[in-house]
Specification:
- By secondary structure, the protein is of the alpha+beta class.
- It has a six-stranded antiparallel beta sheet. It has a three-stranded parallel beta sheet with strand order 5-11-10.
- The protein has 16 helices and eleven strands.
Length: 367
């Protein structure tokens, strides 16, 4: 089987953008809504896979997704490997489309057409091979638009719903003196976009998440330190909850005391004194890594193979949020991914189960 690693698409993200534009156009035409971003990571790899061309030859827009899959069940074979081999191609195409405004992205986690219309002439002038790839993307847009929700589509491909579930941030709470609490709520399973003028505290939210993931340093700004005595992040995975809290020092490095509690139907406490599961920072990191499915980070065998990177909780943040400068960048996919000394660990964390996926919660900020 040939994996979806087409050289033309890899070297030219604009080509992938054309494919996604065609996919979104057809999807919206039949459903009157935009597709979820996760579907881009399914549709574009399938469209770029030349080995699937014969499965499209005797189909039409009215064939439908389920009929196509029933006729050609081999499409599902090695689907995970196909998608994994193509994820960087899709990410580059999405980022190029957003930077050129050919695509748009909204807080509901859907991707659609941008304000800039993609010219049709370049597609018509393409060689026959890439032209067929764009046509396949459009066909998939029509089929998926008629098929229903993203969950239904993934199920049709044999992907279990829990396999595409990831830990999401449900709430972040800042605890002040006198029992005061400021809570930020997020839409689970969706992309949350945070906007605002400079100096309004957007970066403090990112710093709070990083701090509760066991950072040695506390980078929260002084205005937060002066008004808050603790912070907690409430994670959710289906019916499972994970609450991680930590005291905020008035100055200096982070505190060694953290609070970690997991279970079902958990809620954030009203005050910092009610945080449960006190432990030290190292143990807290181990508990979070275990919950996220990041295993064996202290295994000597892993350390010996450092060229492949080591998955740790400290390399989760790049998958949690995207800042404005990264969103519009044509060359940077994730924070610190352009730093060789960090890239291998970030990629290793991406391969860890249940965490670090394009479908993870994202916090996008504009500065």
């Amino acid at each position: 089987m040939r994996l979806a690693y087409d050289l033309f698409a890899e070297s030219n993200p604009a080509f992938g953008t054309f494919g996604l534009v065609g996919f979104c156009q057809k999807y919206h035409a039949v459903s009157k809504r935009s597709p979820e971003l996760a579907l881009a990571y399914l549709a574009l790899p399938l469209a770029l896979s030349d080995d699937l061309e014969t499965s499209f030859e005797e189909t039409a827009a009215k064939t439908g997704l389920l009929s196509w899959l029933n006729r050609y069940p081999d499409v599902r074979l090695d689907l995970g490997a196909r998608l994994d081999a193509s994820k960087d191609i899709v990410s580059a195409a999405v980022r190029f489309g957003l930077s050129t405004k050919a695509l748009s992205f909204n807080s509901a986690g859907t991707i659609g057409l941008g304000t800039r219309k993609a010219p049709r002439a370049p597609i018509a002038d393409l060689p026959e091979k890439p032209k067929r790839a764009v046509k396949r993307a459009e066909r998939l847009g029509t089929w998926m638009g008629k098929a229903g929700s993203a969950g239904t589509i993934f199920s049709a491909f044999g992907v279990r719903s829990d396999a595409v579930s990831r830990w999401n941030i449900r709430e972040i709470a800042f605890f002040g003196v006198g029992g005061r609490r400021r809570t930020l709520e997020f839409d689970v399973g969706k992309v949350n976009v945070i906007t605002g003028a400079s100096g309004t505290g957007k970066s403090a939210i990112i710093d709070a998440i990083d701090y509760c993931l066991g950072s040695k340093d506390c980078n929260l700004p002084f205005f937060v330190r002066n008004h808050a005595e603790a912070v907690a992040v409430h994670w959710a995975l289906g019916e499972t909850d994970l609450i991680v809290g930590r005291k905020i020092p008035k100055a200096g490095s982070g505190t060694s005391l953290m609070y970690v509690r997991s279970g079902r139907n958990l809620t954030l406490p009203d005050t910092s004194e009610e945080l449960e599961g006190p432990t030290n920072r190292e143990t807290a990191r181990e508990l979070i890594e275990k919950a996220f499915g990041i295993q064996g980070t202290d295994d000597p065998a892993i350390a010996a193979k450092s060229e492949k990177g080591r998955a740790t909780i400290r390399d989760v943040p790049p998958y949690i949020f995207l800042s404005g400068d990264v969103i519009i960048s044509r060359t940077t996919l994730l924070h610190d991914l352009n730093r060789p000394e960090k890239a291998k660990d970030i990629k290793a964390t991406r391969r860890a189960r249940r965490c670090g996926s394009p479908r993870c919660s994202r916090l996008a900020r504009n500065s």
